[in-house]
Amino acid sequence: MLRIEHAYWLIAAFLLYSGWRNLRDGHRWHAAFWIVLGLLFGAGDFILAQSAAGHALPAQIAGIGVIALACLAPRLRRQAHPENRTAEQRLQSAIALGHRLFGPALLIPLVTLLVALFGGYLVIGHFALFAKSQMTLTGLALACVIALLAAARVARTPVLEGVAEGRRLLDAIGWAALLPLLLAALGQVFTRSGVGAAIAEIATDFLPTGNATAALAVFALGMVLFTVIMGNAFAAFPVMMAGIGLPLLIHQHGAHPAILGAMGMLCGYCGTLLTPMAADFNLVPAALLELRNPYGVIKAQAWSAVWIFASTFTMMWLLVFR
């Protein structure tokens, strides 16, 4: 059975490969960062099992690893990897391949969707190929592997060259590659620390709780604001849903949970367009494209965020209470 742990082991193997290549090239800080991260990914199952059994030492070692990552991150610098081909050769290759280049990229959402929809039916005897609770994530991991193989076939290059290009991109992004993971975990930290309950108390004290439109507006704007603060709508969602979505909109005013959740996340994504905290979306592209203004991406998409939010809130107000 394919489980999410297999995807983590695959990520761990890639990170350890990146660390080994950096160590061989003399980039010791990059090597140490990716090796420590790879070990944390690879040992996650063992750490959880030991913690459940009451053994604290593996979790403490993992904590030391996280602290080591924080200490190593400021030392990472963008690495210039030698190119096997000139820019002109790469351009000619891209022109020759044409639209076939989009095929491997489109395989990722397609395979993920197929696994999410039909993975539960893939059973050989009594053996299920996918764990039902993790089909979307395992499907995404499988889709990335299939896309890598397809890209190698389309470009007529060895698979290892694709892995090497992934390592080059990882080194270019640096520590910002971890931001989605860290910010998503931050949402759970906020929820468990009682931020959602505090927001619910404030909303009850100061909002006209009998006014569904006002509660919906606070929920939508809160999704934007918390996403701007935390850089990720996934981190903002549990906080706002626990504080306003569930107690006021769903339980008190009868809002449709699916519509509220989906369109509330879209409101949060508007915040993603506006914040440097979403570094992997807004700062990393500016660095890779060598823009003069590091916030040029945010500046270019700010009005798009405003109009998308206005349209989303209008549609949510029309649909969520039906």
Keywords:
transmembrane helix, single chain, two-stranded antiparallel sheet, Permease, globular, mainly alpha, 2 strands, 322 residues, 16 helices, membrane, DUF979
Structure report:
It is a single chain. The protein is mainly alpha-helical. It folds into three domains: 1-79; 86-157, no CATH class; 178-319, no CATH class. Helix content is 74%, strand content 1%. The protein is built from 16 helices and two strands. It has helices spanning 4-24, 28-42, 44-52, 57-72, 87-97, 102-118, 135-155, 159-173, 179-192, 195-206, 212-230, 233-250, 257-272, 279-282, 284-288, 296-319, and strands spanning 123-124, 127-128. The chain has a two-stranded antiparallel sheet with strand order 1-2. Helix 3 (44-52) runs antiparallel to helix 4 and helix 12 runs antiparallel to helix 13. The longest helix has 24 residues, at 296-319. It is globular and about 65 Å long. The mean pLDDT is 83.
Would you identify the regions where 5 or more consecutive residues have pLDDT less than 50? none
Compressed to H and E, one letter per element, the order equals: HHHHHHEEHHHHHHHHHH
Q: Roughly how much helix do the residues carry, as a percent range?
A: over 70%
The percent range for strand residues is: under 5%
Q: Please compute the radius of gyration using only Cα atoms.
A: 22 Å
Order of adjacent strands in the largest pleated sheet: 1-2
Describe the global form.
globular
Q: How many separate domains make up the residues?
A: 3
- The number of E-state strands comes to 2
Structural class: mainly alpha
Q: Indicate the mean pLDDT.
A: 83
- What's the tally of helices? 16
Amino- and carboxy-terminal Cα gap:
41 Å
What can be said about the biggest beta sheet?
A: 2 strands, antiparallel
InterPro entries: DUF979
Keywords: Membrane, Transmembrane, Transmembrane helix
Protein name: Permease
